[in-house]
Write a structure and sequence with these properties.
The complex is a heterodimer of chains A (about 350) and B (about 475).
Chain A lengths: L2 H13 L5 H18 L1 H9 L16 E2 L2 H4 L12 E4 L10 E4 L3 H16 L6 E5 L10 H13 L5 E2 L1 E2 L2 E2 L1 H14 L3 E6 H14 L10 E5 L11 H12 L6 E5 L8 E2 L9 E2 L5 E6 L12 E8 L8 E10 L4 E6 L12 H12 L1
Parallel strand pairs in A: 1-15, 4-5, 4-8, 8-9, 9-10
Antiparallel strand pairs in A: 2-3, 6-7, 10-11, 12-16, 13-14, 14-15, 15-16
Helix pairs in contact in A: 1-5, 2-3, 5-6, 8-9
Chain B lengths: L1 E3 L12 E9 L2 E9 L2 H17 L6 H16 L4 H14 L3 H12 L4 H12 L9 E2 L5 E5 L3 E5 L9 H9 L3 E5 L6 H13 L7 E4 L6 H10 L2 E6 L1 H9 L6 E6 L2 E6 L9 H13 L9 E7 L6 H18 L7 H20 L4 E4 L6 E5 L13 E7 L2 H8 L6 E7 L2 H13 L4 E4 L23 E5 L1 H8 L7
Parallel strand pairs in B: 1-3, 6-7, 6-9, 7-8, 9-10, 11-12, 11-16, 12-15, 14-15, 16-17
Antiparallel strand pairs in B: 2-3, 4-5, 5-18, 13-14
Classes of the chains: A alpha/beta (about 350), B alpha/beta (about 475).
Keywords (chain A): Ligase
Organism (chain A): Domibacillus epiphyticus
GO biological process, one term (chain A): bioluminescence
């Protein structure tokens, strides 16, 4: 099967209302076989695990690639130089960023739009938006910049704006927008990075300003705090957001996505935290014990493995370093698994790395 | 199940608050209650211990103290004794290690604190053990006596069972009052030992205390350090650094940081008949306490040129680890440890793409991992929990250069080599910072009287008081019998 055919299949699949286990499985295996054939580093990886398309019978058996591999190898079915877009991770280890190659953004965009409409927009077609994140132009390799730009383009009214400039949050502009919403009663959506919301909350608090945004207003935050702002407890974060902007916590939606995927997960508001995240029918998640690769019993902590059919060019199945608990229809995201300290008196890898860094500096 | 940890001297009728630490393994769980003193209570404990150290402990002779410790250790070696049974039952739950590994480990370890070993320990450091009891004549003239501190505070850490005994026994041998902060990950053994000592010799009741507080409690630590003569600290460099920042310049601080150890295997030990034994011993060093000790190996450097190649050594090692997994299964890992282990392993799997001659051996459930590397000599820690690298080399010089930058982290090297190589290699390794050379299979059980991290266990604790010959001579003129 060639790339065009694959794209077409996925595109059709996404447009279906639902998919059963059988249909998902079928397409996942087709994709696995396509990727095994065309993605050379992935094939080597699979062969090392002794897994070939002939042996893999369900999507759960597809070898999952650790996200760090995106830093080490060009996981792509096409020549990486011909990719239309390359999304890179922001977290760097030793200055190396993980790269996700997209031959075209057709599938990514379709995945985002269908899903965003259903989970964030719901019954609204367009809403006036403020974006708390830099533009695509400023960050050409950021999947989040692309995601937010797409959101504004597809679902924002023409009066939607970016509220970030080179100095950070453009507070004047933001205040103007918030006042405008309060005065006119036109629902308003603020979307952006979680840490930008923290900066915004700090600014508004120092000005002593709070707002009551009109009904239908909503908030979308994503990405966590990533050492870019102070770390707030989730509960505190949503309490402050809700109290400062007058948006109910059930209209504060958190999106969970990673550069290495083409599909995002959402919760249905953050009335209580941690919330349950779910994705559309073209992505499925397993919660596993990283040592055995087996699923952990329901209700126990494990590590998330996502199988995203939107990832047609790289690898469908990735092993994250995010901890979670499987629930009836999704998973509770517990955040990134932190490194371990030494149990005994033998040095732990992290302490050693830190020391080595000091030596080489 | 509930167990009380800690030991307090008599500080009057006091309500002592406790903190409960919970441990679980295989569905069994145990709640350990540790004493959490108020500042006033802590100060009372310090005062009591210091007084008893001066009035009581210092009145014992060294050989009396040796006998008391020996009796306590004898009880712990007796598998029918109460504390030994508690240890065998509870420590596997608290630390997660396999029962048999703990049982064998305890016996091997406790044996090094019997009377004759303690005597050797004393002679090793002091030359003349009576130096702690009385002024002894010096070869250069004059007299000297070793005086132990009034109070030693021990900050213990880590889950290797019974590890706090080293410094606690050293403190007792120099007749110091001792306050130990029990490690959160194994708070029991030091407490049991304290109770046992008092059962053997009730007069010691006020000479020590085992307490607990949350690490990093700055105010508390500063106050305790202020009142201690010596502080012995165990832990990572970051936490040791923060202890040091709170240490008054007048308090002697002896930090023992986390260390990294490894093995070196000469081609002379790799004939087809002897190699399997070396591998067996090396594998034992790996499985004991799942490499959590500072003396546990992270890497084995194996020399080319023997009948058994380094690659075969790695495969034999894999075989041994698989066998051991059945007999002495690895501790259950937390999700954090599992992630760190699997991401370590994934990283190794990636390097195979660039270095196809490497090999990664392991079973399906990642209970153990052996990574074999050729033409790529380097030095990096393993993620532990039965993860070991075998790296091939030609000449010893080739490995030294990659190890030497990490001087301050080096400790034990397990060696299999002929006598000539042993001494030559020991010399080279010593120069780059290694402080202990031992046989494969002995890495995790240092001999009695070893020099922990190259230092003196007892000498570093004491002060030597000199009576110079001039004082002695001059005193003669004031003698009542002077003519």
């Amino acid at each position: 099967m060639n790339q065009q055919e694959i794209i077409q299949l996925i595109s059709q699949f996404m447009q279906e209302e639902h998919s059963g286990e059988k249909e998902f499985n079928e397409l996942a295996l087709q994709l696995f076989s396509y990727q095994y054939q065309n993605n050379l580093p992935y094939r080597t990886f699979c062969m090392q695990k002794g897994k070939t398309p002939r042996m893999v019978k369900t999507w759960k058996e597809i070898p999952s690639v650790p996200i760090n591999a995106f830093k080490e190898a060009a996981l792509s079915c096409i020549d990486p130089d011909t990719a239309e877009a390359i999304f890179m991770t922001s977290g760097t280890t030793k200055g190396i960023r993980g790269k996700h190659y997209h031959p075209s953004l057709h599938v990514y965009d379709q995945s985002m739009v269908l899903n965003f409409k259903q989970r964030f927009m719901k019954h609204t077609d367009k809403i006036r938006m403020g974006v708390l994140f830099p533009t695509e132009k400023a960050m050409p390799n950021s999947s989040l910049a692309h995601y937010l730009a797409l959101a504004a383009k597809e679902f924002g009214t023409e009066n939607s704006h970016y509220l970030i400039n080179e100095n950070g949050i453009d507070m004047n502009h933001l205040l103007k927008e918030l006042h405008h919403a309060e005065e006119t009663g036109e629902p308003y959506a603020l979307i952006g990075a979680s840490y930008s919301f923290v900066h915004m909350l700090d600014e508004l608090a120092s000005m002593g300003k709070t707002f009551t945004l009109p009904k239908g207003s909503k908030i979308l935050d994503t990405g966590g705090f990533k050492n870019q702002s102070k770390e707030l407890e989730l509960d505190e974060f949503y309490r402050l957001l809700s109290a400062t902007l007058g948006v109910s916590r059930s209209d504060c939606i958190n999106m969970y996505g990673v550069t290495e995927l083409s599909t995002q997960f959402y919760d249905d508001g953050n009335e209580s935290v941690p919330s349950i995240k779910t994705g559309p029918h073209w992505i499925r998640t397993r919660v596993i014990n990283p040592l055995t690769g087996e699923e952990v019993p329901k209700g126990e902590r494990g590590v998330l493995v996502h199988c995203d059919l939107g990832n047609f060019n790289s690898v469908t199945t990735i092993l994250t370093e995010d901890a979670g608990i499987e629930t009836e229809n999704g998973f509770i995201l517990l955040g990134r698994v932190q490194g371990t300290e030494a149990k005994g008196c033998s040095i732990a890898v992290e302490e050693f790395l830190k020391a080595t860094k000091e030596i080489s500096e | 199940m509930k167990e009380l940890a800690g030991y307090l001297p008599c500080i009057g009728e006091e309500e002592v608050e406790t903190k409960i630490l919970t441990f679980q393994k295989n569905g069994k769980s145990i709640e350990v209650e540790v004493p959490l003193l108020t500042t006033e209570q802590m100060n009372k404990v310090i005062e009591t211990v210091k007084k008893a150290s001066t009035d009581i402990l210092k009145s014992f002779s060294t050989s009396e103290i040796v006998t008391i410790i020996d009796r306590a250790i004898e009880r712990l070696l007796d598998r029918n004794s109460l504390y030994r049974q508690k240890a065998e039952e509870l420590l596997p739950i608290v630390t997660g290690y396999d029962e048999e590994i703990i049982r064998l480990g305890l016996t091997a370890y406790l044996k090094t604190f019997r009377k004759h070993e303690l005597q050797r320990f004393l002679v090793e450091d002091l030359g003349n053990p009576v130096l702690l009891d009385d002024f002894q004549p010096r070869v250069k003239g004059g007299f000297s006596k070793a005086i132990g501190p009034t109070l030693i505070t021990h900050i213990w850490s880590g889950n290797v069972p019974a590890l706090p005994l080293w410094s606690l026994i050293s403190g007792l041998l120099v007749k110091a009052g001792n306050i130990g902060k029990a490690p959160s990950s194994e708070p029991l053994f030091s407490s049991w030992f304290a109770h046992l000592l008092v059962e053997v010799e009730p007069r010691l009741a006020d000479c020590f205390a085992i307490v607990w507080w949350k690490g990093g409690d700055e105010e508390r630590e500063a106050s305790i350090f202020e009142q201690s003569d010596v502080v012995v600290g165990y832990g990572g460099n970051a936490s040791l650094q923060s202890l040091q920042n709170r240490m008054p310049v007048t308090t002697r601080f002896l930090p023992f940081g986390h260390k990294i150890s490894f093995g070196v295997v000469s081609q002379s030990s790799l004939d087809s008949r002897k190699a399997w034994k070396s591998v067996h011993q090396a594998a034992l060093d790996v499985i004991r306490y799942d490499q959590q000790g500072c003396y546990s190996p992270h890497i084995f450097y194996v020399q080319h040129g023997g009948n058994v190649s380094p690659r075969e050594f790695a495969r034999l090692m894999a075989n041994e680890l698989e066998n051991f997994q059945r007999r002495f299964p690895r501790r259950d890992l937390s999700i954090e440890e599992s992630v760190s282990l699997s991401s370590w392993r994934q990283k190794e799997e990636m390097t195979i793409l660039a270095h196809p001659q490497n090999e990664i051996l392991g079973n399906e459930t990642n209970d153990w991992t052996v990574v074999y590397e050729e033409h790529n000599i380097h030095f990096a820690p393993s993620s532990l929990n039965r993860v070991i690298k075998v790296i091939s080399f030609e000449n010893i010089e080739d490995i030294l250069s990659s190890i030497s930058p990490h001087r301050s982290y080096l400790q034990t090297v397990g060696i299999a080599a002929d006598p000539k190589e042993l001494f030559e290699w020991a010399d080279s390794l010593g120069k780059i910072g290694v402080t202990r050379i031992t046989a494969l299979g002995s890495m995790t059980s240092p001999e009695a009287g070893w020099h922990h991290d190259g230092r003196f266990n007892l000498l570093d604790l004491v002060n030597i008081v000199d009576i110079e010959s001039s004082a002695k001579e001059s005193s003669e003129q004031f003698a009542p019998y002077v003519d």
